[in-house]
Amino acid sequence: MTNPANIEKAFLLAKEQYASLGVDVDAALEKIRSVAISVHCWQGDDVAGFEGDEGALGNGLAVTGNYPGRARTADELKSDLELAYSLIPGKHRLNLHAMYGDFNGPVDRDQIEVEHFQGWIDWAASQEISLDFNPSYFSHPKAADGFTLAHADEGIRQFWIDHGIACRKIAAAMGKAQGNPCINNFWVPDGYKDTPASRKAPRERLAASLDAIFSENLPAAHTLDAVECKLFGIGSESYVVGSHEFYMGYAISRNKVLCLDAGHFHPTEGISDKISSVLMYVPELLLHVSRGVRWDSDHVVTYSDELQAIMQEIVRGDYLNRVHIGLDFFDASINRVAAWAIGTRNALKALLAASLEPTEKLQQLERDGDFTSRLALMEEQKTMPLGAIWDHYCQSVGVPVGAEWLNKVQEYEKTTLSLRSSCSATV
Ligand SMILES: C[C@H](O)[C@H](O)[C@@H](O)C(=O)CO
Ligand SMILES: [Mn+2]
Q: CATH: 3.30.465.10, 3.30.1330.60, 3.20.20.150, 3.40.630.30. Which one for 36-356?
C-alpha cells in the first residue's frame, strides 16, 4: 500500500508544477467532483437481462468471453455495482436497460411498467445515485429479422412503439423519484445485411414510429429522450436505418438529445471532433464512451488518445452542463467488476487531465496565431504529474489509490463471484 503521507507530498509538488502554468488544481478537482458518469448495467451480465429466457444476444450485439461470475439476478447485479462504485471516486449514475426489470414471470416488452423497476428506483435512492434508462430493441423474437420500429409490418412496429411509450413512462417515474432527468436513450438495430432496394421507406417508417412514441410531452425535469445512431452492425453491414444523418436531423427537428457512441462510426472517425459541431444545433448530447477495435467491438475504455480528446473537447468547449457522459462496453473475458472500475476510472482520469490544462492560455496562443507555442504546451502537458493529482483525489474521497482497487475485486471474486455457476440462478 502506498504511504498516504507520500501521496500528499507528491500532490503538493504536482500542484506547484501546475500552478506554474497558471492551472488551478483545486478548481479542476472541484469540476470533476460534480460529474456523474452513467455506468451501464449491461457490463455486469453480458447484456443478458432478467427476462428469464436466457435468450441469445442478438441484433448485431456480441459479447465474447466466458469469465466466471456473471450477475444472474438483480440482487447480484446490485451487489457487483456497489463494489464497482466503491472503487470509483465521486457519485455516479446507473444506466439501466428495459430488459433488467424485476419481472417474476413472463412480461413482454410492450407490457412493462414502473412497478417492474421499483426495486431499482428504491435501490438507487438507498445508494444516493440516479438512474438513466434505455428501451431494449434487441434479443427478442419480434426483432429476429433485424427490424423493429422501422419494420414493414405494422403490427410489429406497433409492438415496438408500445415498448417505447412504456419505457418513457418508466423513465419519467425514475426522474421524478430522483429529482433530476432520467436520460432515456433509444437505439434500434434496424438495418439490412445487403444492399436495400429502398433506403427511404424504412427511414420514413422509423421517423413516424419515433414521432408516435414521443407524441406525449413529458416533463423535461423528469426525462429527456436521446437517439443513438450507428454506421453498421453485424447483420446490418450495408445499411442502418438510424444513421448519423438520420438522427442528427431527427434530434435537431424534434429537439431531442443526440447520442454519439464512440464505436458507431468509421474506425478512423472520432466522436471528439463531432461534439462542438453537434452542440451548435442540438440542446444536449449523450455520449456512449466505448472503444472499438477494428469495429464496434465495445472493448473496455482505456486511457486512449480518443478518450483524452473527448474529455478535452468537453472541457475546452465548457460543455459539462450539456453533455451527459455514459459508458458502453461489454467484455466477458475479464472480471466484470474490474471492467467497470477500469473503464470508469479512465473516463474520470481523462476528464481530470482535461481540467488540468491551461485552456485559456492555449486558446489565447491560438487566437494570436502562435501555433508553435500551442503545440509545445500541449506536448509538455502530456508528461505533467496527473497521477499525483489523481491519487490525491482518490485518497481524499476514500477510494483505493493506484491499483489497490484490484485487491478488493480479487477478494470479491474469491468470496462471491467464483461461487456463481454459469447457469441461471434459481433465487
Ligand atoms: C446495449 C446498448 O444499448 C447498446 O450497446 C447500444 O447503445 C449500442 O451501442 C449498440 O451498438
Ligand atoms: Mn451505444
A: 3.20.20.150
